[in-house]
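User: For a benchmark we're assembling, each entry needs the component sequences followed by a predicted structure for the full assembly. Here are entry 17's components. Please fill in the structure.
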Amino acid sequence: MPTTDELKLRIETAIPGASAQVIDLTGGGDHFRASVVAPEFAGLSRIEQHRRVYSVFGADIGGPIHALSLETRAE
Amino acid sequence: MSETTENPIREAIAEAIRDHEVILFMKGTPERPACGFSARTVAALEATQAPFAAVDILPDPRIRQELSALSNWPTIPQLFVKGELVGGCDIVTEMYESGELAEVLGVEPPANAPDEAPKAAEPGAPPLQIDNNLVDRS
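Assistant: Structure for entry 17:
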């Protein structure tokens, strides 16, 4: 079962300079919300920023990670 | 020569996106959303009073698979306007609150529309997760 720490680490490892805050929405270890700030988001549309974060998890989204709600910004 | 494709589901999805200016792929129907995120997105769309088409992805798992392959977006719901992916629940909710959603949909926000995105019909209900309760957590 994924944990908030694991999600945070995966995001911050995969996206250089990223800072992530992750909460477990239901306490069930499968619905999360992440707030991610990363310099490389500058100039990307919101869609592209979210895609970048989703890409960190690949097929885990919809699998062990049932839902990942996102809020992203460059700075 | 155009490529011959043998993927009728993906073609049907692409056609639906082409044929409907505003189309939402969701779990359940606008009247009976089957997930909190879909419910919230429907509520935001309905608050703008813009007409939209809706597709329930639940009846066949291949719909979701093909949709996500087509849109390069892993989660449901997905809102398309004029053939372009606008986003899922988070983006649609943010856009509702900033007024961008009405703008993108080409409607005037109704005078009595709430500033905050309206909650789903079942207030505070977490996304349905019946399936997850069946997972062995030991």
